Every structure is written in structure tokens, then in C-alpha cells.
Amino acid sequence: MTITFQDGELRQLLREHVQSTQPELLANGRDQTLTYPDWLGKGYKRDIGLPSGIELTLHRYHLRKDLVQVCLADQSDCFEFVFSLTAQSQYNEGPVFSDRRAHLLGPEGQDSRWREFAEQDYLAVDIHLNPPLLMSLIESHSTRLPKPLQKILAGDSDFPLVEPIAITPEMQTALWQILKCPYQGITQTLYLEAKSLELIALFLDAIDDNASAKPILHRDDLERIHQAQQILQGDLQAPPSLVDLARQVGLNDRKLKEGFRQVFDTTVFGYLTQQRMEKACQLLVQQRSVAAVAAAVGYASPTAFSGAFRRKFGVTPKAYQLSNCRGA
Predict the structure, then answer these.
(1) For position 147, what pLDDT does the model report?
(2) Where does the chain have alpha helices with state H?
(3) 60 is in which domain, residue-wise?
């Protein structure tokens, strides 16, 4: 079953739900959390307004029904950088955007439809800027931007979307730091402002790199690279070495390294580390001890795990766990 909302109706529904159940979540005009009613899903959208004019929306929810939002052209007046960690969506009945992708949507000249799918975990960060603010950030470099983005900025594009690109490891780090920001007050505001600008910079750098041609992978090699990914996911505690992994999937180690980076935009080791950290976050939320989590994701000691976790997210595992408890 699919539920369709016209422009603004979904947010109004969520706002009314929060007003009747948890009105304290709306007390701060610049930091408001909208939760889903049980019949529609579970989780939240959190809207954070920053002094520069940047607006952040943090998405973390799970839908019970497919959902379509109709966005009216006269209501679309900003640029939206969308970073989807675990979310799949569909724009105007076209191709489905997969997770771990980022895209930029400009002001639209016609009505549009966004479809979200039931029984999936949505984890994403959106950064909204009005056109004058975005232009003030990039105006001295506008002629060096990729052509599709130049056309959108100039209002000359019939399709106001920069095609999705893979989220890089650097983007993932900044996204998790935003989602689990450990600070409060003015420190939180400055931190989120800086991380938002960092993500915009990383996105612009990535679409510039994405414009260069990449060698084409044969179907057989592509399947072997995905097989390697599945092997890593299946054994975070004791994964094979690069040489052993290449041997298991029938590639030489050089082809595996180059192909893995091309497909997943990270190294084999970088992907393994990311999977370990994501699993660690899940276990920490379940109130497992730091030592137990370290062992579960393949670290020889809690100290080594804590160091890797802090480098990834900017906080210790214990601080992450305590922060998540406060937010629960």
C-alpha cells in the first residue's frame, strides 16, 4: 500500500503527532524533532537551523508503508545536498537511488514526486541552502565547477539534479560526526556549521573527480568484487588478508584493489573498517561493553578499538554510548 502526501502534508502530520505526544521536542525553534506515528512508521526527522542560513535535516526512520511526497514547483526554492547512508528513494518514477549515495537537487521548475519504500531503515542527512547563500560560497570558483552544476546554478537546466555519486569515506566520517554530535549549545552550532560546509566541499570535490573517465569493469570481475564485499561483511572478526581474499574470489590482488575502489569508492581495508564501525555502533546502542564490542568486530584490544573509533567519529565509544542513551 502506498500513501501519497501533497506538498507539506507529511510534515504537518508529524508536527501534529509530536504536539499531542511529545511537545517538548518542538520547544526550541531552531532545533525541532518530528516523530512518526506508529501506524506510519517509527523514528524521526530532526530539523536544525544554523546561523549562516544553512538548514540541516537528519533522517532516521523506518516506514511501514510506501510513501510518496508530491513537491510543488512554487515551493521549491532552495538547493538540497542529500547524503543517504541507508536509504533508497525514487525521483519522478525514474531509477531508484541506492544507499551510500549523495546528490544535489536544485530549485525545480515543475512539480516532482519522491517515493520512499516500506520496511527499510532510512539514515540520511540533508543540507539546505537558499540560492544567494550557495552562490556566496562558490561565486569566485563558479566557472571551475562541473558543467551540470553550472547549468543548475544559472537556471539553464531542465533537470535540476546532479546525478548521484558514491559517498566517500571522508563524507561518511563527517556524516556520522553530524548524526552523533556530542556537543551542546554554541559548540554544537559551530560544529554542525563546520561539518555542513565540509560535506558541501567534499561533494563538490567528488563530482569534479567523478567527471573523469574510469575503466570499464567486465561483468565477471564485477561479480567477483561483490563476492569479496560479501566475504568481508560475513566475517568482521577474522577477515581474510588481501591476498587470501583475492584468491578466494579468483582475482589477483592488484585487480581486486583497483576494482574494489572503483565500485565502492574506498579501499578494501577502508570498507572493512567502515563495516566494523557501523556494527560497533549497533552493538554500543544495545549497551554492550566496549571490550565485548571490540572483540565482536575484530579488534585485538579495547584500546585499539577505542582509538580507531575516535579517529572515525571524533568521540570515544563510551561517549557515543552515553550520548545515544541520552537521546533515547
Answers:
(1) 72
(2) 9-21, 131-138, 147-154, 169-179, 185-210, 219-234, 242-249, 253-264, 268-285, 290-296, 302-313, 317-327
(3) 2-210
